[in-house]
Every structure is written in C-alpha cells, then in structure tokens.
Automatic annotation (TrEMBL):
UniProt keyword Kinase present: yes
Protein origin, superkingdom: Bacteria
Database matches in InterPro entries: Anhydro_N_Ac-Mur_kinase, ATPase_NBD
Name the record gives this protein: Anhydro-N-acetylmuramic acid kinase
Keywords: Kinase, Transferase
GO molecular function: kinase activity
Signal peptide (residue range): none
Keyword Membrane attributed: no
Length: 408
C-alpha cells in the first residue's frame, strides 16, 4: 500500500482464513519502507497534477511496479519467508489522480481514478501472483473507486453488540460507520476531507528539508488563524452528504495559498512588506507559518468530528435516543499527530476515541491489511458476504476487485 501521503510503501504479511463475514486475519509482520528522495520527487511531479509529462508518467508506471516487487522480495528475505510460501500479493499501487464526478463536474462522464505501479511488474519482480488495480472494478460497477475501507471494516469489525466508527487519517481522512447488527447496506463509508495532505504539502514547501510535521512539533507552537479556518471549513465539499470522495487534487497547496491570498492572511517573512496585499491595513495581524499548520490541524480534526457526529445524529433520530453509544477507532499516520488527536477528543467529549491497536490491529498497517482482504475475497470469496446484503447499491457495489497478474 502506498497512499496519498507519498511517504513510501507499507508491507503487511498476513495470514488469512475463511472469507466473507467468517474472515479471520493475523498480521504476522509489518513494515513501512520510505521512498528514496529521488523517487519521491519524481512521483510528486505527476501526483495530483492536471498536466504532466506523459512519457514520465508511463515510465513511472512500470518502474514503480518493479520497485514495489523488489521491495517486497527483499523484505520477505529479511523475514525469512520464501516467495513460494506466499499465495498472493495485494498491490494497491500509487495513486496519482482521483477524479470523481463531484471533482471534475462533468456529470455526463464517469467517475475516474488512476493508480500506477503495474501489477505484472510487481509479480515478475518478486515471483508471486499479484492482484492490483482494485479501484477500477468499483467504478465500473457504479462506485467512485473510494473509499474501499468499508469492505474490510465490515468483514472484520461488524458487531452485534455495538456501533463502531472506524476513521483512517491518511493523506485524506475517511470514515466507516457500522451500526450494531448491520447488514452491509447499512454501513456508511465516506471521505471526510484532508487528513495529512495539506499539512504535509505546506511543510514540504516552507520547512524544507522536512517532509511532514513529526509529532506536531511545529503546529503545537502556533495559534489558529480564525479567518483562514472559517474559510477552509466553508468549502462546499464539507456540505455534501455522505458518501463522498475527494483527494489532494481538490485540497491542494495551490487551493490553500489562493484562499490565504483572498482573505487575506499575512505571513511574516524576511520581506514581509512585499508579501502584504495591496490595501491591507498596516495594523492587520501578521501570522507565522506554524499558525497555518495549527489551523490545518484543527481543520482535519473538525472535519473528522463533523462526520462522526453526523452518523451519530442519524442513529439518534432512528432510535429516538439522546445519546447513541458508539465505539470510535482511529488508524493511519494521523494517529501519531497529538494535536489532531487531542482536538478530536475535545470535539467528542462524550466518546472514547481509541486507535485500532485496541482491536489488535496496528493502526499503521490497517490500510494495507484491508487490501489484503479484498484480494482474499477475489480469490477465495463465496456468497457468504452476499447473503447479508439485500440490495447492491451504487455507492457500495458488492463486487470482486483486483486484476490477477501471474509471475510467469
């Protein structure tokens, strides 16, 4: 798995038994391997860009597939596992563009998404049958290609006793809400807004050579910028009903800087006067770059809390209850950001916000594990899950996902 954070490749070695709602998974090993700086820069040049060098994009598709296969082969050797012991690889690839209709606004045209890292090259490089390109089948069946977390979340964490809300904070934050005793069509799964993507992009530009704000060490030094936070939260995406999807294509650094210029927000620099917009009062407050990071951290927390509250509010109406009991579990890189996590807890004071570690799953490994489950369903699935589904809705079609690539 390599997500929108572009930090590297997550490799989870999983032992899976059964399929459908009888699935049992054990994570035997997990590691995250950082991309080398040169490769990361090459991916960034084609990532979430409307105009790219098509030859570079085409070559990268092959190179990343081979690189991912090589990293898997090397890591298996490090773990003392022979390729012949592994039934298959589930390879998500590297997302470079995600364009649902809500983003491209051409309603007569399809939802679309694009991941590079060709599965045949993965399979050839490590000698293991590989399933890849999962999101295309979801789109072909009427979905948006994301988020796909709901399938694995439902298989692993549906409960007869309690409601569960599982939130992953990667580049984009997404939520899966599972009522107790739920059938699959009762599950709500949706992107919520930017997780780490705006934070990381801002750090890369203004705090070089850092690539992200480790432990929120920068953001905790700042203060929120009220006008910026208000403008960010006013984005139309946050008013769309769930389910919905988004990506760094929408919540980009260019969007953020355009918004800051329109408010305007003045950031202290070595040439502050040159950066001050024309007509701005000399008494206007001047902010620091760390204040922008603080505001973006609060944006992430508020958009996540808003999504959770919306699910709880709906449950309250259905049950005519004042407070619905719900278990909240977090995963993804964002769980290591104490400012985001503390803000979420402050915004949800009635609920215990935990990580998936409580459920026995490393929060960093969760996304990779979920794609392993999709591969298992494609290869070994039966009608066990389908027996729990009364209708196949467009936003969450029940389909096998993944193209099968053989090593020879």
């Amino acid at each position: 798995m390599s997500g929108t954070s572009l930090d590297g490749l997550d490799i989870a070695l999983c032992r899976i038994k059964g399929s459908g709602i009888s699935t049992d998974v054990e994570v035997c090993e997990f590691i995250s391997i950082a991309y080398q700086a040169k490769m990361k820069k090459r991916i960034q040049r084609v990532f979430a860009q409307r105009r790219v060098d098509m030859m570079e994009l085409t070559i990268l598709n092959e190179e990343i597939g081979a690189l991912h296969g090589k990293l898997v082969a090397e890591q298996l050797a490090e773990w003392g596992i022979q390729p012949s012991e592994v039934d298959c690889i589930a390879s998500h690839g590297q997302t470079v563009f995600h364009a649902p209709r809500s983003f491209h606004q051409q309603m007569h045209r399809p939802n679309a998404t694009f991941q590079i890292g060709d599965g045949d090259h993965v399979a050839k490089a490590c000698g293991i049958t590989t399933l890849s390109d999962f999101r295309q089948r979801h789109i072909a069946a009427g979905g948006e290609g994301a988020p796909l977390a709901m399938y694995g979340d439902y298989l692993l964490y549906a409960s007869q006793e309690c409601k569960r809300c599982l939130v992953n904070i990667g580049g984009i934050a997404n939520l899966t809400y599972i009522p107790e005793g739920a059938n699959f069509e009762d599950v709500v799964c949706s992107d919520l807004g930017p997780g780490n993507t705006l934070l990381d992009a801002y750090v890369r530009k203004y705090f070089t050579p850092l690539s992200y704000d480790k432990n929120a060490e920068l953001a905790t030094k700042g203060e929120p910028i009220p006008a910026l936070l208000e403008a960010l939260l006013a984005h139309p995406f946050f008013e769309l009903s769930m389910p919905k999807t988004t990506g760094p294509e929408l919540f980009s650094l260019q969007y953020l800087e355009d918004l800051m210029a329109s408010i305007p927000v003045v950031i202290e620099t070595t040439d502050c006067k040159a950066k001050t917009p024309n007509g701005l009062a000399k008494t206007a407050k001047v902010y620091q770059h760390v204040d922008v990071l603080t505001s973006l951290s609060i944006l992430t927390a508020k958009s996540i809390a808003k999504g959770i509250k919306a699910c709880i509010k709906t449950a309250n109406k259905m049950e005519q209850s004042a407070v619905t009991k719900v278990e909240i579990y977090m995963s993804g890189g964002g769980v290591h950001n104490p400012l985001i996590m503390n803000n979420i807890r402050d915004l949800l004071p009635r609920y215990k916000v935990q990580t998936t570690e409580t459920l026995g799953l490393d929060p960093d490994a969760k996304e990779a594990v979920l794609f392993a489950l999709l591969a298992n369903e494609c290869l070994a699935g039966s009608n066990a899950m389908e027996s729990h589904i009364s209708q196949n809705t467009h936003d969450k079609p029940v389909v096998s996902m993944g193209k099968i690539c053989f090593p020879d």
